[in-house]
What does this fold into?
Amino acid sequence: MFGLPKFGDGIGLHRVERFLQAHRIDRPALARRSIAVTGTNGKGSTARFITSAIEAAGMRVGCFTSPHLFDVRERFMIGDDMIPQADFDRHAQTVLAFANALPAGDRMGSFEFLFLVAILWFQETKPDAIVWEAGIGGRYDPVRCVCASISALTSIELEHTELLGATEELIAYDKTDAVAPGGIVILSPSINEGLAIRVAAYASLSGKATLPALASRRVGPVVNTPKGARFTYGFTAAPPEADFPVRLRLAGQHQVDNAVTGLRAAEAWLGLRPEDNAERHFAMLTALGRTRWPGRLEKVAMAPDLWIDVGHTPKALEAVTRTFLEFSPREKTLVVFGVSGSKEVAGIAEAVAARFDHFILTRAHKAGADVALFEGIFRKHASDVVVAADTTEAARIAKERAQHEGLSVVALGGLFLSAEIQRAWNGGDPKQLEFL
It folds into this structure.
C-alpha cells in the first residue's frame, strides 16, 4: 500500500496520536460515535451485525474492517456504500504526506495508514456511529486511539503471541484494552466462563465492565442451511413461546454468536433496554437477517457451485467445515485447499483433512505455503488427493470435476487462497490481485 511496510517500524500509537492532533480530529465526537470490535475470529462479521442493528434504529453507520477481498475500498463503508474512489485517493494523499515526513526508523504500517484514511473520511462524512474492527490485539492497535466506550470481544485463540502474549488469558487482556477506561466490553458466547471471569477482573482494574452477550437472554437450537442460519432469540424472563425467530444470511453457530454479540453491543451503544421496547428490539433482530459479509462461507458461483471461506485458524476451520457438512454431503464435496505460510499450517490442514474425502491442494501466489508442508496430512486421511501447481490450475481442475461428477466445490485455507480461486474460477488472473 503506497510502498509502506505491512506493520511499520514497531508499535505506532504515537504516530496515530500525532496525526489526530495535527489534523484537528474532534476527539470527543469520535469517541461518542465509536464502537470497537476485537477478537481472533469473527470481528468483521460482528462489526457488520453491529452496523445493521444500529441502522435499524434509523442511524447512518460507518464501518471500518479488514481485510478486503478484491478492492481496498471494501474496508471503508457507510451503510452498504464503499468510500468513493476520489475520496479515498484524496485522503490517502493526506496520510501519505504525513507518513513521508516521519523520521527514519519510524515508518508507518499499512494498517495504520488505512485506519487514518478512515479517520479522515468519517470526520468528513459524520456518520452517527462508527464501528471499528481492530487489526491485531487491542492495547497497541490504532483502534484504541478512538477511545470507544463500547467494545465487543468475539473470540480468543493463540495468535501473534510475540506481541499479545503466550496464553489465551494474556491475549484476551490485550484485546480488552481497545475500549476506553470506564467502558463496556461485550463478551461473545464463544468466550468460555473461566476466561470471562478473568477478563472481567482485569477490566475492572481500569473501571471497565464486562457483559456476556447472552446475559438474561437465550438462543434456541441453530439450524444451518445453504441460505444461512435459523434460530430463536428471547429473554429468559419471558416464556419460550415469546422468542423471536431469526434468519441470518450467514451460516454457523459461530455466526449466531457473532450476531447476538453484535446485537448486544448495538444495544449498549444506543443505551437501549430492548425488553422495555419490543418493537425496536424486533426491528434490530430483523436487521441482523439482512447482514451480508463476503467470504464467510459464501456461495460465489452456481452450476457448478463454488463456496469460499476466509477462515485462517484451526478453530475457524473446524467451525466452518462442521457447518458446511450440515447441508453439503461429504461425498459430494470437493475441497480446494491452500494456506498461508505464516499461519498454523499443520493445525489448519488437520482441521480440514479429517472432515472431507476429495481434495485439490495448491499454493496461492500470495504468501502460500509449499504444498509439501501439508500434503502428507491429507494423504493420511484420504485417497483422492490431487496437487495443482497454482490456483489457476486448481480452479480449472475443480470446475471440470464439479461439472462431470456433480460435486460442490469449497475453497478453504484463508483469504488469499479463497480470493485467488474465485478470480480464477471466473476466468481472471489471480496473480493480478492486490493484497496488503
